[in-house]
Amino acid sequence: MNMQVKAAVAAVCFGVLSVAVANDFEDSARVVSVNPQVEQVNQPRQECRTEYVTTQRQPQRSMGGSIIGGIAGGILGNQVGGGNGRTAATAAGAIAGAIVGDRMENNTGGGAVMEQQPVQRCVMVDNWQTRTNGYAVTYEYRGHTYTSVMPYDPGQRLRVRVSVLPLP
C-alpha cells in the first residue's frame, strides 16, 4: 500500500470515530419539581420498666425458745410432787415450758412479713419511621418534560447526558 492510501484510510477512521464520540454530550436541564419518595418502616424496640410488687414472706421459726422453755418447765415441774407424780409433773412442765417458750420467741405479730420486690417488665412496641428512599424529579429539556427517580435532590438544574442516534 502506498503512503497516500494509508493516510486516507487513517483520516476516514479518525473521522468516523470522532463522529461516534460526538453523538454523546452533557448539557443541563431545568428542574420543574422534586417530590420525595417516602416509605413507612417499622423497627420494633423493647421498652422496660421496673415495678415493685408486694410479697408475703413467712419468718423462719426458731427452736431456741422451745428448748429453753422446755428445760425451764421441766426444772419447775420437777420441784412439784414426789415419786411418780414428780415424773409426770416434770414431763408436763417440760411440755408447757416448750409451748410457752416457742410462743414468746416466734410470736412476731401475725407471722407473715410484707416485702417490696423489684420486678422488671419488658414489652415490644412498634416504632414507625418515615424514610426517604429517592426523589421523583421532573425536568424540562429543549421543550420536552421528563421524570426520573433519583437518589438525591438535584436542585434547580440537572446535568443530563444527551445521546444523538441516527434513525434507521
From TrEMBL:
<dbReference type="InterPro" id="IPR008816">
    <property type="entry name" value="Gly_zipper_2TM_dom"/>
</dbReference>
<dbReference type="InterPro" id="IPR051407">
    <property type="entry name" value="Bact_OM_lipoprot/Surf_antigen"/>
</dbReference>
<protein>
    <submittedName>
        <fullName>Glycine zipper 2TM domain containing protein</fullName>
    </submittedName>
</protein>
<keyword id="KW-0732">Signal</keyword>
<feature type="domain" description="Glycine zipper 2TM">
    <location>
        <begin position="64"/>
        <end position="104"/>
    </location>
</feature>
<keyword id="KW-0472">Membrane</keyword>
<feature type="signal peptide">
    <location>
        <begin position="1"/>
        <end position="22"/>
    </location>
</feature>
<dbReference type="GO" id="GO:0019867">
    <property type="term" value="C:outer membrane"/>
</dbReference>
<dbReference type="Pfam" id="PF05433">
    <property type="entry name" value="Rick_17kDa_Anti"/>
</dbReference>
